[in-house]
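During the reporting period, we have paired protein sequences with backbone structure tokens. One record among many follows, to show the layout:
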Amino acid sequence: MVRDASPVPLDAAPLPGFGPDALCPESVAAYRNALSSRRPGHSWLALSDEELLVRLGALGREGGEGPLLATRAGLLMFGHEHEVVREFPSFFLDYRERYEGEGGRWSDRVTTADGERPGNVLGFWQAVSARLTADLRRPFSTDAAQLRVDDTPMRRALREALVNALIHADYYGSRPVTVMKFRDRVEVANPGDLRVPADVALRGGISDARNPTLMKMFSLIDACERAGSGLDAIRSACAAAHAADVELSDAHEPPVTRLTVHLGDAAALGSPAAPAAAPPTDEERVLGLLARVGEAPRSAVQSELGYGGTKTKRLLSSMVARGLLETRGAGNRVTYVLGPQGRPGAPAPGL
């Protein structure tokens, strides 16, 4: 209660003992790439990493003086996992998938402590946002240019639910942020109670983010709706999918907020008893990215996958060796394009 009552956003405060080196360069590069992709002409793209982080509110000076320090938002968004837990001992973000008929076994899991990617909010968001929507129904539609539109209201709704949990979480709380995906619904929980009554939040139009600096960072890369409209978008998506309305509640001992989004007609293809469609593989995600953009550096692929540099480099090298990808340029200027085996309609390697 005392923290939430502060007139200055808690997540904007610089943290003594956490210098710029507490932030993960890979995460900063991934964010820059996301900003470049969503807003290619943005003036901040010309800034140095340090200047960009200051503008984002990820670095600041106590009282406007002294050395640059990581802010709470900066540490959460970009920090090395071991640095994040120094300030937030209970920090843990957990995503799980399970479908009926699997005997209680989780079919996929991502956490900030698994060592597969930077263990911070950005790394988790990058890894989970695509998984959340990978096997939802995708009705055929086209835009004004007669190009297929792959996004849907429910896909946007689930991404919004994920970001909402991340920007409203009380990271000093004792519970993790959890995202659980089932065939017919997605359940999201974050530490911290609602800052406005549930009925008021459901009516929409009011935003009171616990971490407004985090919300600003996500808004700049178009990862969340404008202030106060997120739940409206989620409820509209449920209505469009002929699903039950969202369920929103909070508990107080310990404080936890829970949101359930029912999928209705947007649920995974197949009957309730059939196995779920498998989420895309890492290779399929890389091929899909290059099919969309034509050519991309490793940093863009890394941002798409949410993995660290070493794992991404191994994957790309394997795909090049099998003809799925080809390289252009050399050294730090290498980019990747679809190879003969990775182009639409190509036969499987070895056939």
Summary: Residues 196 and 208 are 7 Å apart (CA to CA). The longest strand covers residues 255-262.
